[in-house]
Amino acid sequence: MTGRTPQEARRRQTAALVAFLLVQTLAVVFFIGDVIGDLREDPQSIHFIFEALVTGALTLGVVFGALALRRTIDLLRAQEAALDVARGALSEVIEAQFAAWGLTPAERDVGLLALKGLDVAEIAEVRGAAQGTVRAQLTRIYSKAGVSGRAQFAAYFVEDLMGQGLKAQTRA
Predict the structure, then answer these.
(1) Which H or E element spans position 139?
(2) What is the pLDDT of residues 37-63, one digit of tens each?
(3) DSSP character at residue 128
């Protein structure tokens, strides 16, 4: 695994497509120049007609490729914007639910770090706290949330993303 984020992978793929389109564009320019040269020499030859057809097809391919690339880039931008909105909305949902559960500021920090996937030792290190303190805070968070552990705690918020709605509306 390369460790790249999906955004980095999309950017690399887009850059590769742009480079490929540029090479194709250079080929079109070359072949158009060649066809013009052949037009002056023998416009009736099979060589000229074949080369003109191939150059036309290549030109259309570049034009359609550029249009498709443009649509793809627009779609990626729209998806990233939607994802940013979803991230912001999820953040708001998490904060609202933490408030509804009555989490303390320290519990909120620990809860967010747990949702981000940090384990007890990592949370303790980030917060400069003892691992026992973090475990106790997680236990209180799970109790206030009405869940039995980390997996249910994370699933609580994932269900909202999947369109199930927050259970908090029935629990709060």
Answers:
(1) helix 131-145
(2) 888 888 888 988 999 999 999 999 999
(3) T
Which pLDDT tens digit goes with each residue over 126-170?
A: 999 999 999 999 999 999 999 999 999 988 877 765 554 444 444
User: CB-hemisphere CA count at 13 Å for 137?
Assistant: 23
CB hemisphere CA count around 11 (13 angstroms): 6
Is 145:171 a contact under the CB 8 Å cutoff?
A: no
Q: Quote the CA–CA distance of 69 and 85 in Å, as a whole number.
A: 24
Q: Where are any strands of DSSP class E within the chain?
A: none
List the beta strands (DSSP E) in 47-165. none
**CA 117 from chain center: how many Å?**
19
Residue found by looking up tokens 């034009």 in the block? 63
Mean residue pLDDT across the chain: 85
